[in-house]
Structure formats: structure tokens, C-alpha cells
Amino acid sequence: MTKVTIFGAGNMGSAIASVLTAGGAEVSHITSSATGATIDGDVVILAVPYTAFDDIVAKYGQQLAGRVVVDITNPLDFTTFKLLPAADSSAAAELAAKLPDSTVLKAFNTNFAATLATGRVGEDITTVLVAGDDTDAKARLGELVTGGGLNVVDAGDLGRARELEAVGVLQMGLAVAGQIGWTGGFATIK
């Protein structure tokens, strides 16, 4: 059984936990403000704001070494709805640089919590896009997600995280403007 530790127990952290538990994982949560907690997951999901990365790396960087770390953030300025990292970077790339002994993946950032919880975007099965440089790590996460009833698409290497973050920010902006619902979003159809 794969053990997963999720930082954050909000809407996204809870929805991801439900999917991965249904997929056969044993899931535990750590709040981002916790100090001294022990990470026991082989896979660690950061279901926290982008601005929490530095604090988590400072407190848990050594424990994250050797683990798969999944970044679900859409790093944006909430006043302008523009991406924060430089145009040639991403939150996931920044995280990978801070955690050189971890395997960083980008996933779940193009999904809303409601579509993870229901497993649907409209009439279609929710699809989780995953980017990363480690094929085995992506496959491991993918097995948990598909085991939980969702679809997975390998979006390429970690360099694709920038595009995934742009899609996530676009989707959030559309929802905030009322052009799509928080139960909607994008789906991939094979």
C-alpha cells in the first residue's frame, strides 16, 4: 500500500485524499503550520498556497528527500490573476530547485476540488494532468488516481508545469468571473 502525506486539509487536500484513498493509498494530513510532524508518506502532496513552499521546505526539507513531492499550486497574484514566477519558470521548477533530492511532479492544479470529489467535469470523467521528469513517479501517482476512478494524462516533463499553471490560472479566472462554474472546467476526451 502506498502511503501519501498531504500538507493541507482544505477543499483540495480533502478531495485529493478521497481520490487517493479510493485508489488504495493510506493517506495522512499535516497542516502547513505544523512544526515537528513526521512525514510518513512515500508520496507527499502540497495542497497549500504557493507562498507556503519556503516555510515547508525550511521545516521539512530533509524529510522530503527521497520522496515524490506533488505540487498542486497555481501561483498567482490574486489581485491581478497573473502568474507569479518568471515567464520561463514555474512553481514546480522553483520547488524542484529547493528540493534537489526529491522527485517533484505537477498535478491536480487544473482540477477544481468539486470535480475531483465527484469524479466528473460535466458528463466526462475528471482527468488529472501530470508533468514530471520521472516516469516511474508519474506512473505511481497515476495508478492511485485511476484506481480512485479518474483519468490521468501524462502531460510531459516538468518543463510543462508552466503551461499547466497557465491553464489552472485561466480556469480559476473564468470561474471567478462567473463564466464557468466551480464544478466545471476542462476535460480531455480520448
Condensed summary:
This is Pyrroline-5-carboxylate reductase catalytic N-terminal domain-containing protein. The protein has helices spanning 11-22, 53-64, 91-98, 113-118, 135-147, 161-176; strands spanning 3-7, 26-30, 43-46, 68-71, 76-77, 82-83, 103-107, 120-121, 124-125, 127-132, 151-156. With 190 residues, it is an alpha/beta fold.
Oligomer: single chain
Instruction: Provide the number of structural domains.
Output: 1
- Placed side by side, the strands forming the largest sheet appear as 2-1-3-4-7-10-11
First and last CA, distance: 29 Å
Helix content: 25-40%
Structural class: alpha/beta
Uncertain segments of ≥5 residues (pLDDT<50)?
A: none
CATH architecture: 3-Layer(aba) Sandwich
CATH topology, by name, is: Rossmann fold
CATH superfamily, please? NAD(P)-binding Rossmann-like Domain
Determine the number of helices (DSSP H or I, runs of at least 4 residues).
Answer: 6
Please describe what this structure looks like.
The protein has 190 residues and is of the alpha/beta class. The chain has one domain (3-176): NAD(P)-binding Rossmann-like Domain (Rossmann fold). The chain is 35% helix and 23% strand. The protein is built from six helices and eleven strands. The protein has helices spanning 11-22, 53-64, 91-98, 113-118, 135-147, 161-176; strands at 3-7, 26-30, 43-46, 68-71, 76-77, 82-83, 103-107, 120-121, 124-125, 127-132, 151-156. The chain has a seven-stranded mixed β-sheet with strand order 2-1-3-4-7-10-11, with helices on both faces. Helix 2 (53-64) links the parallel strand 3 and strand 4. It is globular. Keywords: Oxidoreductase. It comes from Acidipropionibacterium virtanenii.
